[in-house]
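Quick log. Single chain, no ligands specified.
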Amino acid sequence: MQILKASDIAPQFSLPNQDNQTVSLSDYVGKKILLYFYPKAMTPGCTIQAQGLRDSQAALAKLNVEVIGVSPDAVKRLPKFIEKENLNFTLLSDEDHALADAFGVWGLKKFMGKEYDGIHRITFLINENGEIEHVFDKFKTKDHHEVVLAYLQK
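-> predicted structure:
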C-alpha cells in the first residue's frame, strides 16, 4: 500500500454518487476537495465522522472546500446513509476499490484478530489545481472535522 502524499497529483476519477450520477474530479476545477475515504456507510465510526463533516459544512464552504466521501458501498446504500444522517455532501461508490487503490488507501487491515483487505480511513485535501495539498491520516473519527478545519484555518 503506497499512500499518495502532499504534492502528488490526484488521480482523475469518475464514479457514481448517491443519485447514481457520475461525478468526476474535473467537475471541481477551481475548488478545493476534501476527499475522505471511509470503510462502510451506517457503521458507528463512519457515522460519527460523517456527522462531524456535515456539521462543519458551512465553515468548509466558506473556505471553498467541497466534501466528497468515498466507500466501497453499493450506490443503493448511499442515499440511505445521506437520508438517515441528513448529510449535506456527496458520497461516491467505489465498489471495485479502483479509486482507493489509486490513492493507496486499499490494503490489509486487522480487526479483532482477523486480517482482511479494506479501505483505510484517510483523507486527502486536493487543491484547486488537482494537486494533493495535505493528507490527514492521524485523527479520531469524532474529531476528524476539527483536525481538517484547524489545518484549513491556519
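The mean pLDDT is 95.
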